[in-house]
Amino acid sequence: MAQAKLNNNKNLWYLGWALILVGAVFAGAQAMQDKGPVVRWKRVAMDGHRTGAKPVTAENLSESLGSFDDEGYLTPSGVRYEESSCVAQVARELMDVQPQLSHLKQVIGHSAGMYMNLRTQPDLPLGNLVADAIRDYGSRYFRVSMDFALTNYGGIRTPMPEGPVTLDDISSMFPFKNYLCHVKMKGSSLQKLLEQLSGTKAFQAVSGCEVKVKGGKLESALVGGKPIEPERIYNVCSIDFLLDGGDKINLGALAENVTLSHVLIREAMLDYVQRTEAEGKLIEAKADGRVVMEE
Questions:
Q1: How far apart are CA 198 and CA 153, in angstroms?
Q2: Helical ranges in the chain per DSSP H
Q3: Are 235 and 182 in contact (CB under 8 A)?
Q4: What Å distances lie between residue 193 and 43, 108, 149, 250, CA to CA?
């Protein structure tokens, strides 16, 4: 019996080593296999530079998407594709759906430039524009002057195009149902919020403040051009997504009071674009040093 048990243990020992060797050989073979090309992604402006396509409006379908004739598909830049090609098929799909989307192609404003959502850039022109717009709208809607505004870069999904701006552009920029809210918080809580944002790579889109960050730590902060008063109650305009953990921000836990609205952030931006157009002005965004982050 003892000899049989010893033989059995040896067999298990051999089996264990055999499995280890097989695993090592398999791992080595996998490591030697061609892994294929390394792909790195880079953001580029949505300017239609490959085909000459432009933002579609209700009046410029051929100019924006090109046209079809007996020889196939002709892009706006003059390149021709056979009708059976993938490019032509996609163009056909886009053209066919335009009548159903015509109401979204209304030109509601004009932009002085293409403003990208580069989320690693803290003082981002587009983010500054959006935060300023919701602070202004929030002040009018909630009937109280908003000291500060905050929204997240992740909620801005596409660039602001240069030139004509359509209803579709704004809807595409803000596809999520994020509603404006009014958050009252003490200065000490606002200080904590800014300290939390300082520990991130790109802060977030803010309005009404001037912030300096060094090495992930908040060095200084002014709200309304003045140091934060710990016991003062500040009026903050933001979105409900950030009240309870969205993008790891929990405004609700810092709030003295929260008032929700039925106004989507895209409606606030539509208001800004339409008011700017009515005044005969271009949409302009810029970096202005409101957030300075140093290593």
A1: 15
A2: 2-32, 61-65, 86-101, 125-142, 167-173, 187-198, 251-254, 265-278
A3: yes
A4: 29, 35, 12, 9
The CATH 3.90.780.10 domain(s) of the chain lie at 110-294
**CATH annotation of 110-294:** 3.90.780.10
Q: Are 291 and 118 in contact (CB under 8 A)?
A: no
SS3 282: coil
Largest CA distance in the chain: 99
Q: Which residues in the chain show pLDDT less than 50?
A: 2-6
How far is the C-alpha of 111 from the C-alpha of 60, rounded, in Å?
18
CB burial of residue 72 (10 Å; 0-12, 13-18, 19+): middle
At 242 the three-state DSSP class reads helix
pTM of the model: 0.73
pLDDT digits (tens, 9 = 90+) for 99-113: 887 788 889 999 999
Residue 48 carries which side chain, given as an amino acid letter?
A: G
